[in-house]
Amino acid sequence: MDRFEPLRRRTIALVGLMGVGKSSVGRRLANALGLPFRDADAEVEAAAARSIPDIFAELGEPAFREGERRVIARLLDEEPHVLATGGGAFVDPKTRALIKAKAISIWLKTDLEVLARRVGRKDNRPLLAGKDPIEVLKSQAQARYPTYAEADITVETGDAAHHVTVDQLLRALDDYVEEHQP
Ligand code: S3P
User: Fold this and answer.
1) Disulfide engineering: 119 pairs with which of 19, 33, 83, 138, CB 3.0-4.6 Å?
2) Which atom of ligand 1 is closest in space to residue 44's alpha carbon?
3) How does pLDDT run across 57-85, given as a tens digit for each residue?
4) Which residue's CA is minimally distant from atom 9 of ligand 1?
5) Cα–ligand 1 centroid distance for 45 (angstroms)
């Protein structure tokens, strides 16, 4: 049995604020484990045949959340994989219950200043459009951190390079799995 076999038995769902690296770190984590990678935002875009900014603009946020819930429910029924969720997914009670039931959840947590710097470079997030990223992130942190804390594992990543974060996640997963599925 290789070292990672116990980590390939359940889907690993990454949760946390925008810019924390759920997709970029998730893809590398999947590679390291030999698991498929799925990105919930990309799957929602494919299902709606629209970009996320267009979904928000044309259909509204409630329709986006509904689509997100359906897509994540479908993905959680697939074979084990690493799943990057959108920042609001785990906050939705139904989506959170599904993730808790079917996956190992990891909250990726990083200083808000680091996140603000990262998200400020992109314009693909409708919740940030025309706003000061740090202010949006502060209010999201206040509203969402108590819920993210319900994830099975919390990993504080700082501003580390992705491969450092992946090593951190592998250690945290090893510990979790050893304790919960010996
Ligand atoms: C959102 C985060 C985004 C995307 C949408 C809403 C949020 O995903 O799902 O713009 O509510 O925090 P990322 O966390 O991947 O940026």
Assistant:
1) 19
2) 9
3) 999 999 999 999 999 999 999 999 999 99
4) 86
5) 12
